[in-house]
Amino acid sequence: MDALDSLLAIEAIRAVKARYCRLLDTKDWAGFAALFTDDAVMDVSQDTGNPPITGTAAIIAQVRFAVDHAATSHQVHTPEITLDGTDAAKGVWAMQDRVAWKDGKSPIPGVASITGYGQYHETYRREGGEWKIAALRLSRFHVDMHPA
What we know:
alpha+beta, 4 helices, 6 strands
């Protein structure tokens, strides 16, 4: 892959992550699901204590359970994207998220909202000319919990 193709691939991956944040925060679940490969794996075990989730339908169900009844704001910064051939890549993104649940809808007893800080560790795969998220692991450095 030449330098121009590499830069175009990295920019396309950045656009996928930008859509990830926008579609998640606007609750566009069909659009959000389209960002993932069919066999994608999401690991949010640090937050949930549950094992990694495989498959788009299971990923969407988990994310909806966590934030469907919340106002959210996800921000990602300073991506480190490494291409692995022409159709695979890895990335690490600094992240901050804010999740404020509607009254009585928080999955965390006694907590009305959280502000989290950490990183997304992801792998990407190009399928049919489009970059998609093949694996995502969220690691958190700190979470501020705001009481109800």
